[in-house]
Amino acid sequence: MTALDTTLDPRDPAYLEGRGSTLQWLAALEAALDEARAGGGEKWVTRHHARGKLLPRERIEMLLDQDSPFLELSPVAARGSEFPVGASVVTGIGAVEGVECVVIANDPTVAGGAVNPYTAEKIRRAARIASENRLPLVNLVESSGEAAPAGSIARELSRLTADRVPTVCVVFGTTSGDAAYLPALSDYTIVVRGHAKVLTIHPQRSGVEVRATPVVPVGPPGPADQLAEDERDGLRLARQCVRRFNWRKQGPPPRTTRPRDPRYDAEALLSLAAAGPSRFDAREVLARILDDSDFDEFKPGQGSVLVAGWGELHGYPVGVLASPGIWLPPAESRKAVHFLQLANATATPVLFLRHPGEIKKSDDTDVRHDAPLVHAVAKSTVPHLVLTIGPEHAGPPDRADRPRFQFSWPRPSAEPAAADDGVIDPRDTRTVLGLCLSAVHSAAVAGAEHVGVFRP
């Protein structure tokens, strides 16, 4: 492999200015995160604690393995809307008894954990991540779900069952509406004694009146597999369920068991986050996120606008396609198509580094040149990850085609893109992408069994 070099000078005034801008954007992001963590506010948080109950992030912390990371997804969803920041639910990926799981936890301090359109979409996205990446799903439920579209959440749970991905549901309190079906649709159900109550809502023909049928679990047998004495006991039982999955990853393990850190300081990524398309160099980013800053560039003498190549990230092989925000000329499109073909032939996940910038079309640019690339992306079966870098402007269409994960760096637009799984601190990029690569290898990587890297 070839070690990347860097030309960034931390004393450059442009470097310092870009760093300052990014830190301002991060401060705004942190304020939004604080708002989401505050839930329904001090009054409702205090009342919740007074009842001997835990907050959603406290439940998650007790569920996960001690000192293990938690990759929270879309933490500031619904920001800028009429609904509370965070969409009254916490979703993310963490390790339970050594098994990477998707975790969904309602926030009952926000209008009783009521489900709104943002909540439903956030839960659907989490369930889709679980299904696509073959990650067990743990639901920590306490929600009044009347606002959810009928069957929306239940549909995603049914897909997980069809894909033989195990699901666990812990009911902590009153649960109604669409969320009331979660215990019945989960493989393992745990309810907390004295607190859990499930209310199924049946609309009448008039569409106005509703009939609520309470189901109060008193102990197995019944709607619950296990009865917990309190919330902590419920989380202990959930961990016990996961331990009994006998779960194994189907994808190959990291190729390098003890990967080296990048040779360059991640602090410089703060400056790169504010760089415009003319100053954007994907190699500067890669030098700060790839193992040992090693990168084998693919066809460096052809299609120079597009940077493509191979590296490793936390020991996992990864291909990279990076371009600024312009329409790709024919040479770049052909280069990208060839690269994607090789990535699929070698069962290597692909990271798309996108710098939207501004649309610029050269004289030899024709949208018809994009057709082979669009087809190549659509036919690609390896996992795709997307990282959007730099200020957002009207850019070319996203060519990643339903990526497994999609994150962005902070930018001066106030709200994150709707498709983002989260806006992240640029300095955390290597860690976030490493967690994502580990997650996608929970499922078999398409084609791996044919290229000699699949290890059952």
UniProtKB/TrEMBL annotation:
Domain CoA carboxyltransferase N-terminal: 22-146
Gene3D superfamilies: 2-enoyl-CoA Hydratase, Chain A, domain 1
Domain of life of the source: Bacteria
Pfam families: Carboxyl_trans
Protein name, UniProt field: Acetyl-CoA carboxylase carboxyltransferase subunit
